[in-house]
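Changelog note: in this version the structure field was regenerated for every chain. One regenerated record is shown below for reference.
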Amino acid sequence: MEARRQYECDRKRRYRAEQRSNKKHLTAEADLLQELEWLGRQLIQRKGNREWLRRCAQDCCASVANNRTLRDQVRRYNHLTQTLHNWVHTSMTLSGASPWLHSTLIADPVARQYGYRWLTDRVFHSALAAHATTGSIDDMARVTVHANADCEIAGMKTWCQHTILVPYTRVASCLWDTFTQDDRSPMRHAKTLVSESDLFYKRVYDKLHGTNSCLLMRRYNLPTRIVFVRVFLRDDDCFPLLPHELRPHGFGWTAIEKITDDVTLYRSTVTHHAPVTTQGAISLDQTAAVFGVEPHPTSPATTLARIETNCLRNFLTMREHTTRELQRRLQRATTASDEAASMLM
């Protein structure tokens, strides 16, 4: 009996010892797992911190680059604003004359884009005001020469008006094609420098008269009217006037207005100022030579009258040529439209 009791005591002692050993191992394993879990969290946190630091560095670099870009943009805009301010300031005259008459296109490429629009916009608004005060629709053509008391020519103005029995959009389209076409002949050469859907800028060389013209033209589409604005620039910093050249300058506009679906009113006016050389405006005798007129030896008024007569004759001849060319283009456009319509039927 005593032996059995001793056996049970030893067995329970071994069991408790085994339980304590298992508990110790389990506790150690739990501690190890907790430590591994903590290390895992630290590793994830470190990775998160590195990612956060990486994003911060990227954001900082992007911010610095954006700041540099904005500063460069501000500097460019400041330079452009100052350039345009100086350009406008030098373009304005104190005599009360129209300020665009002595405008200059500067060499700065960005400022030139603003210059194209600014110069044509001013003539366009002047054209709207002039068009609103003209109520007559009679066909007419006239030339007026403006001179001072000493018979020095300040400029001349041409005006013409007639009715065309064609839709106004077709007339405008044919005219725009005529305007934008580069003329090439032995005595006349045109080179387009800027060509956009509603604007172009070209230089025109006339060997016969020794002229070098800078023509800026823009198209304005209104609900029932299309206006073409022309500016003959006096100065262009990219193309300075050479000593042997003569430069006409002035401005004008052509309005193509809808009267009915098939009736169009054509109005056009151009103001030409005395052409200039590197020495300034040309003299009366030089103007007479341009128009093929023999100067009167003692009477400037007679010379002026001869110039005006010859100018009107040249203008009427030019208008006849322009009208024939327009009619030819309109006929061709009408024929093409009729053929296209017949093919669809």
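Spot check on this record: DSSP finds five helices and twelve strands in the chain. Residues 2-91 form the longest helix (90 residues).
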